[in-house]
Amino acid sequence: MSSELLRISCKGITAVADTVLWQATKYDSVFAFLNYYGSESQVRGIFASITSGDPLIVENADGRKTLRKNYPSSMKLKSWRFGYGKYQAALRDDNILSECIIDLNNSPTEAWDMFLKKRRIPYLKEWIPSIMRLLEKEGLVTLLTGYGKLKAWRWEATDDEACDLIVKKIFKKAAAA
Is pLDDT at 1 greater than 50 in this prediction? Predict the structure, then answer.
């Protein structure tokens, strides 16, 4: 993930962003999180366009990417004013907090620990790197693609599925040692 500023546009409204996360699906890329900057009208216009279903175009030096809204969910916007007439806005899929493991501090183990504490999954903290690899390999979590310094995984399993897999592959191996 790079730290360059990106040019974003939606239905003719243009702004800059430093973080964008999405999940690539079979047919398109589904938008998950966007941190962007612009005037108040740019911030609100991009939010309105995305929530109405218009695609978000993200451009950087490597080219452009088209992102779409995840239709079963809604979007949330939080904006802050800084400087004269400038705003920072964080736009997210409403489900991102319950469905995603978000690494804010460049410490995946801590992010996974905070996420798993809220689930009905028994684990030891030293198992987290093994749990991460196992669940990614089995397709129960998906690493979100993006630009910026934020890293996230979308949780796509039930607690029972994850627990069964952890017991089968990690707990038995740890108990045998």
Answer: no
Paired tokens of 65: 């990417």
Burial status of residue 82 (CB atoms within 10 A of its CB: 0-12, 13-18, 19 or more): exposed
Question: Confidence class of residue 23 from pLDDT cuts 50, 70 and 90?
Answer: confident
SS3 content of the chain, % helix, strand, coil (to 5): 30, 40, 30
Entry field: residues in the chain: 177
Q: Are strands 63-67 and 6-10 parallel, antiparallel or unpaired?
A: unpaired
In the chain, what are the domain boundaries? 6-94, 97-176
Query: Is the CB of residue 5 less than 8 Å from the CB of residue 20?
Result: no
For 142-164, write each residue's pLDDT tens digit.
999 888 888 899 998 899 999 99
Cα–Cα distance, 109 to 145 (Å, whole number): 19
CB atoms within 10 A of CB 67: 24
Q: What span, in angstroms and rounded, lies between the C-alpha atoms of 33 and 29?
A: 12
What's the CA gap between 108 and 131, in Å, rounded? 12
Contacts of 4 (CB under 8 A, 6+ apart): 60, 61, 147
**Per-residue model confidence as pLDDT tens digits over 84-142:** 889 999 998 887 877 899 898 889 999 999 999 988 888 889 999 999 999 999 999 99
